[in-house]
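User: Hi! I have a protein structure encoded as tokens and I'd like to know what sequence might fold into it. I'm fairly new to this, so please keep things simple.
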């Protein structure tokens, strides 16, 4: 057995022994890397050539992409500019609309004032024929009308002194007595209420005449039947003149 193994190993029929030189790993990598880089370069060249042949040249594509980006930026800036202009125009329209509304209200107020002045002119033109018939102080053009708000009423009147008394300054105050019904019973409401502080709107101070516009509000469940206007001279507890107007 041993002889057979020896013959197989050292005889002519024994396997050939190959002797290879030892090559360090860094030498092997130094030889291999150029081939790898060359293959990668060849692949990249083929890819770039394919893109160029297909009409997708990288430089041209990047140029077109940059052009699109610049165009988007330009459109964005223009859109921002237009948005600011639209906002500015909207603000200007609001200002113009407010100015037009204010002008319209002023014209309406002037027209109403003009009508009042016409009424005053007509009244004072006929005043010598009517003045003094009810004493040295008289109430004219008394009107009580409901306003747009529920329970709110507007009282208008004109106080005039007699011709002989117009050099004398009249001082006093105004009082309203509203008569009506509430829940089936009669009620009388006083404006201003008793013991309330003096309100400038209720104070009177004039020599010739004074126009009075007074707004008062009552509970919603009160039905007005009449309104009485009382004018008190300063220091007096009895009305100097009074007048009542009925409401349907």
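Assistant: Happy to help. Inverse folding works backwards from shape to sequence: for each of the 248 positions I chose a residue that suits the local structure. Here it is:
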């Amino acid at each position: 057995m041993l002889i057979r193994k020896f013959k197989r190993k050292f005889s002519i029929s024994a396997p050939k022994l190959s002797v290879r030189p030892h090559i360090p790993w860094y030498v092997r990598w130094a030889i291999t890397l150029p081939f790898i880089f060359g293959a990668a370069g060849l692949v990249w060249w083929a890819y770039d050539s394919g893109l160029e042949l297909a009409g997708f040249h990288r430089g041209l594509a990047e140029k077109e992409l940059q052009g699109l980006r610049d165009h988007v930026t330009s459109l964005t800036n223009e859109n921002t500019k237009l948005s600011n202009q639209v906002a500015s125009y909207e603000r200007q329209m609001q200002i113009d609309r407010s100015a037009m509304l204010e002008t319209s209200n002023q014209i309406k107020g002037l027209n109403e004032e003009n009508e009042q002045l016409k009424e005053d002119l007509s009244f004072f033109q006929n005043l010598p024929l009517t003045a003094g018939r009810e004493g040295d102080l008289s109430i004219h053009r008394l009107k009580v009308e409901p306003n747009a708000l529920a329970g709110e009423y507007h009282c208008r009147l004109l106080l005039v002194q007699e011709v002989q008394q117009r050099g004398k300054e009249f001082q006093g105050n105004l009082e309203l007595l509203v008569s009506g019904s509430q829940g089936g019973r009669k009620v009388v409401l006083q404006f201003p209420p008793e013991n309330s502080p003096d309100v400038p709107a209720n104070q009177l101070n004039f020599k010739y005449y004074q126009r009075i516009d007074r707004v008062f509000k009552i509970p919603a469940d009160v039905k007005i039947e009449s309104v009485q206007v009382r004018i008190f001279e300063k220091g007096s507890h009895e009305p100097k003149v009074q007048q009542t107007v009925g409401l349907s």
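A useful reference point when you look it over: The radius of gyration is 54 Å. Feel free to ask if any position seems puzzling.
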